[in-house]
Amino acid sequence: MLDLAAMRAKIAVLESGGRAGHGVLPLGIEMVDAALPGGLPLGHWHEVIGDGQEAETCAAPAAFAALMASPLARRGEAVWVLRRDDLWAPGLTGLGFPPERLIQVCARDEAEALAAMEDALATVGVAAVFGEVEAVDLTAGRRLQLACEKRGAVALVLKRRPYGGAGKREAAGSTCATRWRVASAPSEPPAGEFGLGAPRFSVALERCRGGRTGAWILEAAGTYSWEASDAPYPLRLVAPLGDRQLAPAPSAHRHAA
């Protein structure tokens, strides 16, 4: 009997032009890992996008990307290429991201941001690179992919317009391995308690090579605190809202007798 995860990995290798893979990073959520080829593909770059005001602030996409990649940051250095000097490192600490692994680089423009990402991906000891970039054309995407393959690092492109505006026109096609669309979702405190609960995200996986798309409500594992634990799987599924294909609630007319 063929292993489904192994079969997906072979398909992903074929789709990437036959290059050997660098493995995957399981997210520890069965439904999400089943949509992915067993986990987030390593040695590839991934897009994380927000809608509305998030296209400028990038707050929810950045928090989600940091949570998803925090296990990688514990294996090596994490480089964050900024377009605005507004990354709040203590906030990442509260999400369990190791601040001692974080290297911040502020780029003057798109070209410099992409170049800094490529240099970081080619550096020994770097496990994850975050880059705030408005648009990635096919040429820049191929360059990022080649840089990821050199050492098996992961690049997370946070699509951001740091100073607002209409934005650049997106080029057709993309070489990213996955594309995630992220928005904030209402949190809930633990049962019997007051206040805010752990951060929640409405997440749609819109593109996945070697996998399939999906949509879920995910939550940071553990209540947000300055002593957030370094859990191996920093995200978890919110069970009641985990599937958008839930059956509609029965109407009142059906219960009328």
Write up this protein.
It is a single chain. The chain is an alpha/beta fold and 257 residues long. It has one domain (24-163, 178-223): 3-Layer(aba) Sandwich (Rossmann fold), CATH 3.40.50.300. The chain has 8 helices and 11 strands. The strands form 2 sheets. The chain has a 9-stranded mixed beta sheet with strand order 5-4-6-7-3-8-9-10-11, with helices on both faces. Strand 6 (126-133), helix 7 and strand 7 form a beta-alpha-beta unit. It is globular, with a radius of gyration of 19 Å.
List the helices and strands and how they pair.
Layout: H1 4-15, E1 24-25, H2 30-35, E2 40-41, E3 45-49, H3 54-57, H4 59-73, E4 77-82, H5 89-94, E5 102-106, H6 110-121, E6 126-133, H7 138-151, E7 154-159, E8 178-185, E9 200-208, E10 214-220, E11 235-237, H8 252-255
Parallel strand pairs: 3-7, 3-8, 4-5, 4-6, 6-7
Antiparallel strand pairs: 1-2, 8-9, 9-10, 10-11
